[in-house]
Write a structure and sequence with these properties.
Blueprint lengths: L1 E7 L1 H5 L3 H10 L3 E8 L3 H7 L9 H8 L4 E8 L2 H9 L12 H5 L8 E3 L3 H12 L2
Antiparallel strand pairs: 1-3, 1-4, 2-3
The structure holds cytidine-5'-diphosphate and magnesium ion (MG).
């Protein structure tokens, strides 16, 4: 069994899609093992997305991530990291598969409802930041 981290971003709360998203990961068979609701500080958001600090979208991304609450969910499942990335769908709007969370529900590029770890190393890095305190 493998673990991964899914984060419901502020637009999931704005659009009342929290239940819908959690339903989808439960239906897929993921087991929820940890959860944290919080308002990210700017500093914590910047540390979380440090890998993107030189990208042109970084400021917009950080402002979006602190615009409302987030819900971080650790789940367990077979091949969880790979399967969860499939379940959330692609980053680019035009590549988002129908049937995926982003493909079915997300409208924007920055406002894309969810984050999911894309590797074991990034999962370890991200879970430490989220659940540190
Ligand atoms: O979340 P994912 O791993 O699919 O994408 P990323 O390339 O790691 O980008 C992180 C986040 O930055 C995305 O989830 C979007 O919210 C945002 N982003 C953006 O605003 N503009 C882009 N051109 C790419 C990503
Ligand atoms: Mg990413």
């Amino acid at each position: 069994m493998e673990k991964t981290l899914l984060i419901l971003k502020p637009d999931a709360f704005k659009r009342n899609l929290v239940g819908e998203i959690i339903k989808r990961l439960e239906m897929k068979g993921f087991k929820i093992v940890n959860m944290k609701f919080e308002f990210l500080s700017k500093e914590k958001a910047m540390r979380f997305y440090e890998v993107h600090k030189d990208k042109i979208f970084f400021n917009d991304l950080i402002n979006f991530m602190i615009s409302g609450p987030i819900l971080s969910i650790e789940v367990e499942g077979e091949n969880a990291i790979y399967i969860m990335r499939k379940l959330i769908g692609a980053t680019k709007p035009e590549e988002r598969e129908m049937g995926s969370i982003r493909g079915d529900l997300a409208i924007g590029l920055t406002e894309d409802l969810v984050h999911a770890s894309d590797s074991k190393e990034n999962y370890e890095y991200e879970r430490k930041i989220i659940f540190e305190d």
